Amino acid sequence: MYKHILIPTDGSDLSQQAIEHGIALAKAVGARVTVITVTEPFYASAFEPSMVEHYKKHVAALATKHLDDAKTAANSSNISCEVVRLEHEQPYQAIIDAAEARGCDVIVMASHGRRGLSAIVLGNETMKVLTHSPIPVVVVRRPRRSDYFAAS
Fold this sequence. Notes:
- The chain has one domain (about 5-150): 3-Layer(aba) Sandwich (Rossmann fold).
- Helices cover about 50% and strands about 20% of the residues.
- It contains six helices and five strands.
- Helix 3 (about 90-100) crosses helix 5.
- The longest helix is centred in the middle third of the chain and has 28 residues, at about 50-75.
- The chain starts with a strand and ends with a helix.
């Protein structure tokens, strides 16, 4: 079945659920995982260079934390895990390119499930990956509101 799973993360609670799902899938099928985070470049010619540098350091620290957390989760499940941090203007394209370059055979990622105007305005990296990826995509969705009450 799957041998190499790519799991994009933005550090959100929902992407953490995708990491957990991807690791569980990897464990079930004996696959390895690569966890990736993609940040968009900060174009700031109008800002002081020190502000731009501060932003870049902050983003790098957050990305490192998210990737370290994912690697720890994979290692605790005895799953081989590589981590990748990229900067790209189109995160969805970086995800697809990384999956193809690393020979991944499935992408497991989260979706906030936005609909209507908010999905159009905010964009949706998951939808873009689904639309453009030649590699299968498993989408981990936010639990339905009724699921929150059932767990209580």
